[in-house]
Amino acid sequence: MPRLTDYLNEADLRGLQDAFSTVAGMPISICDPDGTPLRLRPAEKDWTETFAPEGLEEAVQRQKRRRSPQAESAPADLSVQLDGETVGRVRLTEARPSAQRLGDPQAETRGQLLKLLSGLLVRLCEANRKLHHRVDDLVALYRVTAQFSERHDVQGILDEVTRVVVETFDAKASAIRLLSPSGKELLMQASWKFTPEYIEKGPLLVADSAVDRQVLETGQPVYVADMRSDPRVVYPDEARAEGYVSGLCVPLMYKNRPEGVLRVYMGEAFEFDWFDKQLLRTIASGAAAAIVNARLLDEAQEGWQVRRQLQIAATVQQRMIPTSSPAIPGMDIHAVYVPSQEVGGDFYDFIPLPQGNLGVAICDVCGKGVPASLLMASIRFSLRAHAAGVYDMSEVLSLVNRDLCAGTLSSDFATMFYGVLRHEDRMFTYACAGHMPPILVRGGEVCQLETGGGVLGVLPDMEFPQDYFHLEAGDTIFAYTDGLNEALNFQGQEYGRERIEQALLFAVEQGYSAHAAADYVVWDMRRFAGLHARPDDLTLVCIRVL
Questions:
Q1: What is the rounded distance in angstroms from the CA atom of residue 400 to the CA atom of residue 408?
Q2: Strands 445-448, 439-442: parallel, antiparallel or unpaired by DSSP?
Q3: Which of 85, 185, 377, 416 has minimal Cβ neighbours within 10 Å of its Cβ?
Q4: Starting at the edge strand that comes first in sequence, how are the strands of the sheet with 77-82 ordered?
């Protein structure tokens, strides 16, 4: 059985008892429900200052003016009831019979004092009980927000929020709907104490729900007094069937951006006060932050996995690129390969052929990143497979082209330069598939190589004419991809073929090795481009005839 001391401390009860006894002029006792006087400790403050006699007297006089002359005798014993249950009693402990006769002014005054004391005790108990509930709510809020920081799974966070809301508000049910990627629909993501029928009642478009639309647009809670009859409610019949009456909808906001809504449904008419709304908004705010953080963590983990996969792909691709230049008597050969991302679409290759011959290839695949790298690997394998048994350049490129057309989309294509250096007579035979011809420097001048054909991967019957020339001492062959000539400076100007030729001529005049000449051209390009980002892969091959 509840008692007054469950809600109020004994010192305050003693202070009230003493103050009212002073005003009444005789002892007033505050008792247990069975009438046993409470054994109260001394008061912690002087309640007579709080309840001054003149204030009480004025209240008593107002009550007397409201009473009729035929009023019943004033009570000497009153119960203190909270929600219809007796939690204590107040009584005059030395009431004299002469003081209780009808019309006795002192009896009426003391009776009114007992009523005032009883009413005051009820209000204090209600206030303390409400305060205790608020403390319990704050404890629940602290507990749930602490769990937000500990959990990283979005669904677990949503389920926990709805459960805590139902328990905190003693609600009928709670639900969270999150905005779809388009922002036009609210998708049910979590619920607590909902029936399957209510959960599966259908989609909820933001445009059709006046309540949700107002919440998302204003960022403020919206209260519905009766969901069964409010015209703003989309599913009133379902709410009636489930027993939902009052409801409150608050936004899930993160950095002023709505993520969805949090709803709480009550099984009876209920008016949410300021504290209730603030508490629910705080829970919703913490939930929104936790949801976004969990999503960011998931994205970060996915990004890490992608980066890890790219690192593995880059390692595999690097193994396809020759790690050293071939040692051919009378030849100085060097290559440079710099992808713009972890993996690239460019490649060069040195293919050992029978009789000491050497195949030299440089290729630029359309696109960047992983798709381009996969296409690059396919072309390289096809080239090596066909070049091993075929000397004719035109036929080799035709076979690679047919493979590419048969196994890829029409948007997948590549350009390639392929040549064979015949060691015995220093003859160089080459063909171009849509690729810019290499630069030949001979006798201090640039000689243009014009032979070429269409790109790989477009038409299966494409032809690739070939040409040949004999190398002479001092010749330099310089092949490259468009990552070199299309490099831009901050004025939007391309480095261009003319600058490549000038830089290469300078390197040859200085007697640079193939390694030094290639490095010089790359350095000159970077000097021209400055810190401007490189949009494409950079690959080049330099061959000097000694």
A1: 12
A2: antiparallel
A3: 85
A4: 28-31, 85-92, 77-82
